[in-house]
Amino acid sequence: MQEKFKKVVPYIFPILAFAFVVFMFIRWYSSRVAEQGNGLLSSDLEITNLTQEEEESIIRGTTDFATVEMTAVGEASGEIRYQLTEDKLNFTVTANLPESDEAFAVWLKEVDGDAKKKVFTLTYSKAGFIGSASVPAEILPVEVVVSTESDLLLEDALLRGIIEK
Q1: Higher local confidence (pLDDT), 123 or 2
Q2: Is the preceding peptide bond at 141 cis, omega within 30 degrees of 0?
């Protein structure tokens, strides 16, 4: 019996240490996933493009849409028209932006945090730059930011606006 015990004793501490490390990793990972929830960084966040008819309906204002004027930097101007339907937020960004060789992107950013996600790239039309999308309404309130596509930190944002609940 004493010989078997001598053979097993050297393995007890490494097994306990390994079990402790695995336990701590699982605890860290589960808390990390719980923090993300259904926020902007969640992989479950569905961003869908609106159909042409829905986008034109928002632009023309044929139904009741709320409007948020975006605060501008420089000579840019723009607005957000949005509608909450069921559990979705449908919104369109229209902007008059300075000429640039680079495309302009629309980002959603947490109001009280740093999480952000690129939603779409604005396209040029007769009315200026336009883009639209539909996202889950559970992310509200959210800040809508227009910047150049390469501005990943949103340091040089041209337009900003907040959609409240």
Answers
A1: 123
A2: yes
Beta pairing class for 128-136 and 123-125:
antiparallel
Would you state the structure tokens that stand for residue 15, as one six-digit string?
């097994």
Nearest one of 77, 70, 90 to 131, comparing CA atoms: 90
Q: What's the whole-number mean pLDDT along residues 18-24?
A: 93
Q: Which residues pair with 135 in a beta bridge?
A: 89
CB 111 within 8 A of CB 139: no
Residue 3, pLDDT above cutoff 80? yes
CA 40 to chain centre: 4
Q: Which is nearest to 102 in space by CA: 64, 136, 147? A: 147
The pTM of the full predicted model, rounded to 2 decimals, is: 0.69
Q: Mean pLDDT throughout 22-26?
A: 92
Other CB atoms within 10 A of residue 33 CB: 10
Q: Which two tokens stand for residue 55?
A: 């986008």
Beta strands in the chain (DSSP E): 66-69, 71-72, 77-85, 88-96, 104-110, 116-121, 123-125, 128-136, 142-148, 159-163
For 41, the token pair is: 């960084």
